[in-house]
């Protein structure tokens, strides 16, 4: 294989996603069976210790997964009315009910039958509509579609440096790629039920490519190189061989990254910014499509080769030369980069991104995150990737201490340092810089794109709240679902700030089904409305807590229904798309050029909400759009079905609070941009003893909203303590609960007064006006997830009875002195 003068490799064109969807459902787009490379003696123990893991297990459950069910039409319409009831006036509600009844008597049953016929030959009835909704989106993907994860710092101090952290993450990410491609990644399950693994085949080597008629997703299943961006400049080198084994050690990769940083620093940042073509990926998609045409107009040209290398890379590693000073700025850096203009030139990290691909971002101080193109994968999939990568970095460090430490993978790559170099094949492990030919039209377009991006960044603000008052442990100890509890907190905070409720979205995972994605949970219900009005009213504490309980129970029930594919949003959206397609196909058959209306409805963008975008006619086999926006049909349009012309349809598709719960201990924060001009985007992670929030908006008092949220959380904690006097600390150990029970058995023979600690003393951060002023009496019983205290008490009583009957009455210990109460948080 030869290299051109600028040292780029000629790659096979990436494979379109439509080809993937045409393949048998049990076969993801990847190479067929791959014989595992034998592992040398150094890692042989890893293979032996994992011999029970079967090769080819990743997609083993695909054929057994059920298809996403099409809900009953009347049930969907009933849920639609219910989802709107708390958001409408009585008159609006009656109008919506009338529209729904009209729909059920006319267009609804016809569209339902069409959907059933359509779905009979499809893997999923929503999948094609889903892809179209994303790929027809014309606005920039940055801040509108791409979410981010902020990883926790590496627990090994030596890796909290940019080069060492980046090299470690790359090695772990490549091990994950290897496991997916060799089908050795253990399938996802929830309580033993398998989940669809199809999205993992779409995670690496993919790119979102704009065209004149919408975007397409392409993939190179043979990709074996990564692209590194530093100061807006592009570099690449190979990291895998033909068997998907790693060909570089962590030390080798670190050396490459150090060389890349050194080379990038040779170009002044102001000069580098003038050629930072990554900014073009933030443009309007049609504009970006035209610019790609300029880059690729001469097949085989230098620019075409450079662009192809970026498109086909496994992923992009972004090395930022800055380190944000606070967590809010750090989150913003992971989501959209920073904007800093020096002498009229943009030198922020926003120029060091390529938003059409999966990106791993590492700051100068080692802080790291992930930004991902969202069309083909959901947060749950990328979370598995992030958590496995983070876990692998820890286990690899443990192995340097103890060679018998476990490994996360079924098999490991042979040690590259001990392999015969000839076994690597035709690879290039030396970093090579992509040198673009900056045509005049590209230079001008780059300047305009950067200016548009800077505007977009300035229009948004980001704030974080790291709430440490309590977390999952406390919430469950009080008998609530953690997610439902937090969702009600958003409603109470918003109502307390604005005096009204707004349409709220939360995604529910539907990966129990083949090619499942998400369903929309509509948080605002009548029970929710009753709770916030009760909470902010002059009501007794018990009544407020009871209202909260009913609201969370309703939310939990709705979540379960949605996860079973029985929500209303996706079903109605599919019916809407079918109606639109039939209208457009009818118009096309009359010889007129027809496109979708300019006021289309929400797409199921999982990063938290629906994205308002016009919808295109559906193609039967691909994911590319064939729609132009804003044009009108030449012939008169037929009447819109009553449900879709009802104002309630517009209301339910305009999300104000776009929320998503996604996380585990490997993540510090998670977030995304707002999905409407007057809305909030809220990502949150519920940890054992804290809750992390990352909120964004177009300058809608984001900090004040989070302050109100924090105040509510402390206030509800006080109410729960006041009404749950018999609840023990969620951290109570089994031994301590035994002590509590034993004390009850010996009656009132204790000596001394129990000392109640000040819970505020252990809470970090500034006090709020609702910080507890007094502690509630707690007798220590209760707590979830340990054991049934009632049964244990009964058993202990029985044991004492037997001992007394046998004359073997033990001498009871006397608990002398004051008992100090352990703080709950």
From TrEMBL:
List all Polar residues biased stretches. 36-51
Cellular component aspect of the GO annotation: mitochondrion
For bias type Low complexity, the affected ranges are 589-603
Show the GO MF annotations. Answer: carnitine O-acetyltransferase activity
> InterPro entries per the record?
Carn_acyl_trans (IPR000542), Carn_acyl_trans_N (IPR042572), CAT-like_dom_sf (IPR023213), Cho/carn_acyl_trans (IPR039551), Cho/carn_acyl_trans_2 (IPR042231)
Q: Which domain of life is it from?
A: Eukaryota
What residues form the catalytic site here?
374 (proton acceptor)
- Ranges for the region named Disordered are 36-67, 589-624, 752-778
Provide the Choline/carnitine acyltransferase domain boundaries: 68-710
GO biological process: what's one of them?
Answer: fatty acid metabolic process
Keywords for the protein's UniProt record, in alphabetical order: Acyltransferase, Fatty acid metabolism, Lipid metabolism, Transferase, Transport
- Family label: Belongs to the carnitine/choline acetyltransferase family.
Q: What is this protein called?
A: Choline/Carnitine o-acyltransferase-domain-containing protein
């Amino acid at each position: 294989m030869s290299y051109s003068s600028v040292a780029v490799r000629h790659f096979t064109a990436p494979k379109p996603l439509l080809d993937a969807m045409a393949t048998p459902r049990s076969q993801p787009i990847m190479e067929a069976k791959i014989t595992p490379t034998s592992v040398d003696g150094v890692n042989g123990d890893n293979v032996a210790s994992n011999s029970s893991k079967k090769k080819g297990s990743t997609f083993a459950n695909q054929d057994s997964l059920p298809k996403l069910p099409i809900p009953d039409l009347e049930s969907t319409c009933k849920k639609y009315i219910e989802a709107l009831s708390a958001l409408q006036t009585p008159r609006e509600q009656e109008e919506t009910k009338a529209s729904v009844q009209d729909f059920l008597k006319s267009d609804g049953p016809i569209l339902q039958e069409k959907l059933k016929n359509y779905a009979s030959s499809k893997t999923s009835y929503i999948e094609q509509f889903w892809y179209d909704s994303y790929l027809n989106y014309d606005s920039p993907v940055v801040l509108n579609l791409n979410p981010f994860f902020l990883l926790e710092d590496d627990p090994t101090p030596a890796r909290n440096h940019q080069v060492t952290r980046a090299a470690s993450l790359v090695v772990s990410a490549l091990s994950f790629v290897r496991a997916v491609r060799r089908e050795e990644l253990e399938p996802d399950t929830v309580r033993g039920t398998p989940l669809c693994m199809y999205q993992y085949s779409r995670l690496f080597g993919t790119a979102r490519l704009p065209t004149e008629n919408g975007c397409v997703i392409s993939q190179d299943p043979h990709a074996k190189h990564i692209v590194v961006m530093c100061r807006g400049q592009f570099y690449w080198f190979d990291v895998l061989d033909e068997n998907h084994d790693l060909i570089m050690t962590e030390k080798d990769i670190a050396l490459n990254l150090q060389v890349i940083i050194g080379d990038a620093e040779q170009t002044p940042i102001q000069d580098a910014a003038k050629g930072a073509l990554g900014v073009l990926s933030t443009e309007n998609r049609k504009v970006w499509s035209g610019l790609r045409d300029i880059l690729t107009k001469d097949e085989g040209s230098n620019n075409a080769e450079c662009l192809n290398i970026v498109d086909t890379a496994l992923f992009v590693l972004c090395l930022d030369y800055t380190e944000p000073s606070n967590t809010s700025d750090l989150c913003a850096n992971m989501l959209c980069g920073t904007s800093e203009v020096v002498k009229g030139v943009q030198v922020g990290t926003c120029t060091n991104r390529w938003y059409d691909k999966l990106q791993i971002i590492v700051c100068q101080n080692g802080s790291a995150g992930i930004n991902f193109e969202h069309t083909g994968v959901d947060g749950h999939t990328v979370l598995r990737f992030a958590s496995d990568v983070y876990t692998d970095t820890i286990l690899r460090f443990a192995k340097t201490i103890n060679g018998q430490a476990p490994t996360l993978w079924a098999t490991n790559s042979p040690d590259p340092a001990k392999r015969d170099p000839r076994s690597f094949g035709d690879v290039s492990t030396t970093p090579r810089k992509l040198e673009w030919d900056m045509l005049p039209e590209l230079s001008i377009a780059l300047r305009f794109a950067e200016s548009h991006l800077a505007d977009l960044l300035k229009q948004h603000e980001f704030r974080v709240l790291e709430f440490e008052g309590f977390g999952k442990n406390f919430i469950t100890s009080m008998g609530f679902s953690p997610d439902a509890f937090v969702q009600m907190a958003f409603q109470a905070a918003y109502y307390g700030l604005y005096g009204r409720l707004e349409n709220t979205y939360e995604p529910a995972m539907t990966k129990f089904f083949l090619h499942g994605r998400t369903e929309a949970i509509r948080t605002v219900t009548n029970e929710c409305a009753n709770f916030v009005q009760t909470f902010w009213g002059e009501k007794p504490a018990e009544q407020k807590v009871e209202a909260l309980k009913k609201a969370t129970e309703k939310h939990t029930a709705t979540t379960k229904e949605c996860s079973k594919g029985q929500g209303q949003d996706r079903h109605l959206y599919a019916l809407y798309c079918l109606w639109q397609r039939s209208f457009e196909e009818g118009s096309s058959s009359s010889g007129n050029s027809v496109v979708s209306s300019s006021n289309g409805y929400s797409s199921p963008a999982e990063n938290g909400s629906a994205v308002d975008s016009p919808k295109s006619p559906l193609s039967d086999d691909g994911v590319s759009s064939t729609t132009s926006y804003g044009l009108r049909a030449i012939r008169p349009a037929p009447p819109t079905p009553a449900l879709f012309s009802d104002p309630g349809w517009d209301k339910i598709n305009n999300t104000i609070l776009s929320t998503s719960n996604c996380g585990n201990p490997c993540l510090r924060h998670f977030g995304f941009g707002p999905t409407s001009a007057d809305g909030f985007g809220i990502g949150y992670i519920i940890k054992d003893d804290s809750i992390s929030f990352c909120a964004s908006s177009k300058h809608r008092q984001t900090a004040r909203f989070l302050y109100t949220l924090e105040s509510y959380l402390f206030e509800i904690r006080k109410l729960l303590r006041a009404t749950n006097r018999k609840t023990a600390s969620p951290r109570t150990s089994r031994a301590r609960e035994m002590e509590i029970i034993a004390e009850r058995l010996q009656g009132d023979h204790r000596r001394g007064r129990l000392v109640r600690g000040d819970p505020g003393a252990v809470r970090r951060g500034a006090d709020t006006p609702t910080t507890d002023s007094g502690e509630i009496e707690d007798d220590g019983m209760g707590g979830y997830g340990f054991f049934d205290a009632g049964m244990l008490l009964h058993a202990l009583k029985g044991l004492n009875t037997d001992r007394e009957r046998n004359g073997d009455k033990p001498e009871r210990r006397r608990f002398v002195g004051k008992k100090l109460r352990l703080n709950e948080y």
